[in-house]
């Protein structure tokens, strides 16, 4: 009998870390019984699904609503450092980090836009500082990974068209949008001529993006 | 009317300066009022219009306080609020009351001075906690809960002061009925209220304004204090969608509050019959008593005098509530004393709150130095 392995990502609870085995019947109804391991028998014909439940270990997330101030979120990391984030009523967001054993925290105040950017960095989406890059993975399509990267067009490019630069032929990547003076040009035609200061959105596999950076941008 | 516009313009400039220097604007507004009014140049006089605006300021201040007053959370976590709050109440109220009584105020006046002396400025404290980036410190949470406790005490003080000259039973029955009515409206009309607040035209803001004013008008008609009723309205509305109400009431509060402070300053007369000795004593004690209560709170809750120092540094400022008490119940002498105390403590408090981390660091490094210099075996 095959025992498919499930990974459940349960709701994060404070300070709990445990592995349990879940038992389910063929109808798909899952009986939650973490104590099954301790010698109890299942009725014959029951498929046993092994479900490993990782409740995020010891990551204590605390949220408090402070009257007059706003909402506070506090996370204590495994290594004992503390990070607190405050969404204040004035609209700004303050992040504090307190190193383990340290007395005074250091703080940073952010606007909502900046906070969202920081959030992107923390989730691993942005790779470089000023040029943003997003990688999307489609796990159903043989783990297809597509990267979208922004490049700022240097002076040497001004007047050149996409056709001149031979973007597709040299790198395989495609320029899908150009941002010029806060206006977006989606799907620029091959005859599109760049200007200095344009931001180009390039889409492709990460190798193609690297190639674009090496062969087109460096020239 | 011209005076009114001059005051408004001066306040705008002062607000810009205070924001630039990141110090609280409240003392500046009062000082502006004093300079423009009776004591100073005499350009601005309080008239019916200014009185109306000041009243609005007070009503919206209290309505806002009611909105923030989440009783369920206090009941869920009483120990935290009570410990710090009670220490502050006994120490500060005690010192303020005793000092005022010894300085020759009557019992009733001493009570008002003591209350104004005790209640810190939630507005100044919370803004300074945010601006000085101290929200994370464990003292910050204690401080916030202490201010919440003070708000509750203020309600009782208002009730006691306004009940003094009435038939008590009738008074409390009226209040209870009004409370029941307001909570019933927000309980059964919750969906309706929320649907009003969700609109994106002028209706939500109009509704908020009208609700506060109507409540005040009815309260006056029925002979119950409008201050209490507006707080109760805020607390009742807080059970529906407090954030929306805050958002719609904020513009009114911000503008009218400035008028409230300026015209409080205008009516203050420092030129005649002012006992500077009393003012000096009250101002000094206002800082000292917060040091004592802060130290006790720090030791009791956090087990550290350094925490106490931090609490003290952030809780010196008196502000809007002290002035509200002075406006509502104070005689001219009390009003001048409280005005001086608010100006003094809020300016001192701005600096202590800003530099408390330095103070703390200084003390820690000195004690470290002492520990390094300490050679127990040299003495033999």
The total number of structural domains of chain B is 1
Helix segment tally of chain B: 17
Summing up helix and strand content along with how strands pair, one would put the structural category of chain A as alpha+beta
| Structural shape of chain A | elongated
- Shape designation of chain B: globular
CATH superfamily of the largest domain in chain A: Regulator of K+ conductance, C-terminal domain
- Could you name the CATH topology of the largest domain in chain A? Alpha-Beta Plaits
Count of individual domains of chain A: 3
CATH fold name of chain B, please? Na+/H+ antiporter like fold
Strand content of chain B: under 5%
List the secondary-structure elements of chain A in sequence, H or E.
EEEEEEEEEHEEHHEEEH
Q: What series of H and E elements makes up the topology of chain B?
A: HHHHHHHHHHHHHHHHH
CATH class of the largest domain in chain A: Alpha Beta
Strand order of the largest sheet of chain A: 5-6-7-8-9
Can you characterise this structure?
The complex is a heterodimer of chains A (219) and B (380). Chain A is an alpha+beta fold and 219 residues long. Chain A has helices at 112-122, 162-165, 167-171, 206-217; strands spanning 5-8, 23-24, 30-31, 50-53, 60-66, 70-76, 82-88, 93-98, 106-110, 133-138, 144-152, 174-180, 183-186, 199-204. Chain A has 3 domains: 1-57, no CATH class; 60-122, no CATH class; 133-217, 2-Layer Sandwich (Alpha-Beta Plaits), CATH 3.30.70.1450. With 380 residues, chain B is mostly helical. Chain B has one domain (50-373): Na+/H+ antiporter like fold, CATH 1.20.1530.20. Chain B contains 17 helices and no strands. Chain B has helices at residues 2-21, 26-36, 48-68, 71-76, 78-102, 107-118, 122-131, 138-163, 168-188, 190-197, 203-221, 226-237, 242-267, 276-302, 305-314, 320-329, 332-373. Chain B is globular and about 75 Å long.
């Amino acid at each position: 009998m095959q025992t498919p392995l499930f990974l459940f990502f349960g709701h994060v609870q404070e300070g709990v870390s445990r592995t349990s085995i879940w038992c389910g019947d063929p109808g798909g109804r899952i009986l939650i019984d973490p104590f099954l391991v301790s010698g109890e028998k299942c009725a014959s014909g029951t498929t046993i699904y092994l479900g490993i439940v990782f409740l995020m270990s010891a990551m204590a997330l605390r949220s408090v609503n402070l009257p007059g101030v706003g909402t506070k979120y506090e996370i204590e990391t495994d290594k004992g450092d503390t990070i607190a984030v405050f969404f204040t009523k004035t609209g700004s967001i303050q992040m504090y980090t307190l190193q383990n054993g340290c007395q005074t925290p250091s703080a940073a105040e952010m606007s909502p836009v900046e906070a969202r950017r920081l959030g992107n960095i923390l989730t691993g989406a942005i790779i470089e500082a000023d040029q943003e890059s997003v990688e999307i993975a489609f796990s159903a399509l043989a783990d297809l990974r597509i990267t979208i990267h922004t490049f700022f067009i240097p002076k040497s490019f001004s007047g050149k068209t996409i056709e001149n630069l031979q973007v597709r032929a040299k790198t395989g990547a495609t320029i899908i949008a150009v941002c010029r003076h806060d206006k977006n040009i989606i799907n620029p035609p091959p005859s599109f001529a760049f200007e200095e200061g344009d931001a180009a959105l390039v889409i492709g596999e990460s190798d193609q993006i690297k190639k674009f950076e090496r062969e087109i941008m460096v020239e | 009317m011209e005076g009114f516009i001059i005051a408004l313009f001066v306040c705008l400039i002062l607000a810009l300066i205070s924001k630039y220097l990141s110090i609280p604007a409240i003392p500046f507004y009062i000082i502006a009022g004093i300079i423009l009014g009776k004591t100073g140049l005499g350009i601005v006089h309080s008239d019916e219009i200014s009185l109306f605006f000041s009243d609005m300021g007070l009503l919206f201040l209290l309505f806002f306080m009611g909105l923030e007053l989440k009783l369920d959370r206090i009941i869920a976590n009483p120990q935290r609020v009570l410990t710090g709050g009670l220490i502050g109440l006994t120490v500060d109220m005690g010192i303020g009351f005793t000092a005022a009584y010894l300085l020759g105020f009557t019992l009733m006046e001493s009570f008002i001075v003591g209350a104004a002396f005790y209640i810190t400025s939630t507005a100044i404290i919370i803004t300074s906690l945010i601006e000085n980036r101290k929200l994370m410190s464990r003292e910050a949470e204690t401080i916030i809960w202490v201010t919440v406790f003070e708000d509750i005490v203020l309600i009782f003080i208002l009730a006691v002061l306004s009940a003094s000259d009435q038939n008590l039973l009738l008074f409390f029955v009226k209040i209870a009925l009004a409370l029941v009515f307001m909570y019933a409206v927000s309980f059964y009309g919750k969906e309706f209220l929320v649907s009003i607040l969700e609109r994106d035209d002028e209706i939500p803001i109009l509704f908020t304004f009208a609700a506060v004013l109507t409540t005040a008008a009815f309260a006056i008609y029925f002979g119950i204090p409008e201050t209490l009723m507006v707080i109760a309205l805020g607390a009742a509305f807080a059970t529906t969608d407090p954030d929306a109400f805050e958002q719609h009431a904020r513009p009114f509060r911000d503008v009218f509050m400035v008028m409230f402070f300026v015209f409080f300053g205008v009516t203050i007369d420092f030129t005649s019959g002012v006992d500077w000795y009393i003012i000096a004593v009250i101002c000094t004690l206002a800082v000292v008593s917060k040091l004592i209560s802060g130290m006790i709170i720090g030791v009791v809750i956090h087990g550290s005098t350094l925490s106490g120092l931090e609490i003290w540094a952030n809780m010196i400022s008196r502000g809007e509530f002290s002035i509200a008490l002075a406006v509502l119940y104070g005689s001219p002498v009390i009003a001048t004393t409280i005005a001086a105390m608010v100006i003094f403590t809020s300016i001192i408090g701005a600096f202590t709150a800003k530099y408390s981390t330095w103070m703390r660091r200084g003390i820690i490094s000195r004690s470290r130095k002492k520990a390094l210099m300490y050679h127990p075996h040299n003495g033999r």
